[in-house]
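Exercise 7. Predict the structure of Deazaflavin-dependent nitroreductase family protein from Saccharomonospora azurea NA-128.
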Amino acid sequence: MLFGDDHVRRYEETDGEEGYTWMKGAPILILTTTGRRSGKERKSPLIFGEHDGAYVVVASKGGAPDHPDWYKNLAADPAVRVQVKADKFPARARTAVGEERAKLWSRMVEVWPDYEDYQRKTEREIPVVVLERPA
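Solution. The predicted structure, encoded as tokens:
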């Protein structure tokens, strides 16, 4: 099973032939953010869903009390890059709120039911992020 940097490397080397499908059949994309302190490129393999032509990811960090670094990075700079299999493109990240968040949260729990357990573990509201291609 692929994890972390090894997951990113194999995914990129094979255009997602290795690493696109992860545990329990969850689909994976590679999100590239800019480090908020370092300014360096940071890549994360993330479970995703699709909604209205955009991709949706969840900043769960397994229910940890703090947001994952990739989320802090895109909060500081929402200009990101995304790779889904061989499709690589720039995107703009935004955090869903209100009814949109509730709808997308339900959709993502269908993709990865463990998100409900992660939410129970933490007091923070786990962010749901929409990754949109430029118009």
